[in-house]
Amino acid sequence: MKATIWAGRNSVEVQSVPDPKILNDRDAIVRVTSTAICGSDLHLYDGYIPTVKHGDVLGHEFMGEVVEVGKGVHNLAVGDRVVVPFPIACGACSACDRDLYSLCENSNPNAGIAEKLMGHSPAGLFGYSHMLGGFAGGQAEYARVPFADVGPLKIEDDLTDDQVLFLSDILPTGYMGAEMCDIQHGDVVAVWGAGPVGLFAMVSAILLGASQVIAIDRVPYRLDLAQRLGATPLNFEETSVLGELQDITAGRGPDHCIDAVGMEARNSTTVVDAYDRVKQAMRLETERPHALREAAMSCRNGGTISIVGVYGGMMDKFPIGAVMNRSLTIKTGQCHVHRYMRPLLERIRKGEIDPTMIITHHLSLDQAPHGYEIFKHKQDSCTKVVLNP
């Protein structure tokens, strides 16, 4: 079959790789009908996630048709149409029992590697390094889905792939980012990053009762889309984010700050941006935490910082003093996607959320390298690329 593989830093290729096979009675094989390039994939593409190897199949946002099931899978049948969550979860461990599916204790066969970097291992993830399981991803014609009796969500109506594909990751991730804020009526929410996750976090914050949502980014077409979705745009290259947020909130700061950027944040107008970029390039730190620093300094006393942007290791010069002395609460995590898929599917059915609004490009799988380039460099007003194998 054809698949998108990691071919080195800033390089992906579409190559022929072996077809996936049932390896466990709880496996299923899915013929992929739609998959997407995620902002998290760019961290792999840029070479900042360790333990990625040449030839690894990428992609963790995918859906398709079940073509084979293991003997232990009784809830799915050949021909079922499913969306697959990006964390792999067993459904029976202590973490899964608490609906903390991205922390599954049984799905990462390489837990020992993750423990050396993180202390404890999270769940295995599709297409996201050997540290997180070494599982082949979904930017391919077919994918093996472990614990298929737990993860995939059947789509039993006429909703299109475009309407439901993002239940695999970015819609639940954005929603969880807003939910972690415990938004009350009248709250002001600032969101760093107007990419796909940030946009879904903005929509979710409005659904959950925020009176004002502020979108912080530097790309005009992304800020325009955020404004159309109901957010107040703030271009950090044109103004002081801290100053503007103070003015908007009468000096208090936003009640909640959502970091939807992660480890490759930047602001070329600041000296510390150059510092972070040099240290990251030299592998002296793994993160560029500008957005997170700014969120910590901006948030009102007693407010919440919600982190759904991906971080991989260590950061430098984080203002922990501001967090401690001003009673800020930090909530974070890889999304526990399984928890949110069905409720968000109902919101889609009711027309409360339209996931298709972020899609700007449909490409064939063969065009994946082009998709990565335009997504990374924000060419051709690219917000989200969907690949159709």
UniProtKB/TrEMBL annotation:
<protein>
    <submittedName>
        <fullName>Glutathione-dependent formaldehyde dehydrogenase</fullName>
    </submittedName>
</protein>
<dbReference type="Pfam" id="PF08240">
    <property type="entry name" value="ADH_N"/>
</dbReference>
<keyword id="KW-0862">Zinc</keyword>
<feature type="domain" description="Alcohol dehydrogenase-like N-terminal">
    <location>
        <begin position="25"/>
        <end position="153"/>
    </location>
</feature>
<dbReference type="InterPro" id="IPR036291">
    <property type="entry name" value="NAD(P)-bd_dom_sf"/>
</dbReference>
<dbReference type="InterPro" id="IPR002328">
    <property type="entry name" value="ADH_Zn_CS"/>
</dbReference>
<comment type="similarity">
    <text>Belongs to the zinc-containing alcohol dehydrogenase family.</text>
</comment>
<keyword id="KW-0560">Oxidoreductase</keyword>
<dbReference type="GO" id="GO:0016491">
    <property type="term" value="F:oxidoreductase activity"/>
</dbReference>
<dbReference type="Pfam" id="PF00107">
    <property type="entry name" value="ADH_zinc_N"/>
</dbReference>
<keyword id="KW-0479">Metal-binding</keyword>
<dbReference type="GO" id="GO:0008270">
    <property type="term" value="F:zinc ion binding"/>
</dbReference>
<feature type="domain" description="Alcohol dehydrogenase-like C-terminal">
    <location>
        <begin position="196"/>
        <end position="264"/>
    </location>
</feature>
<dbReference type="InterPro" id="IPR013154">
    <property type="entry name" value="ADH-like_N"/>
</dbReference>
<dbReference type="InterPro" id="IPR013149">
    <property type="entry name" value="ADH-like_C"/>
</dbReference>
<dbReference type="InterPro" id="IPR011032">
    <property type="entry name" value="GroES-like_sf"/>
</dbReference>
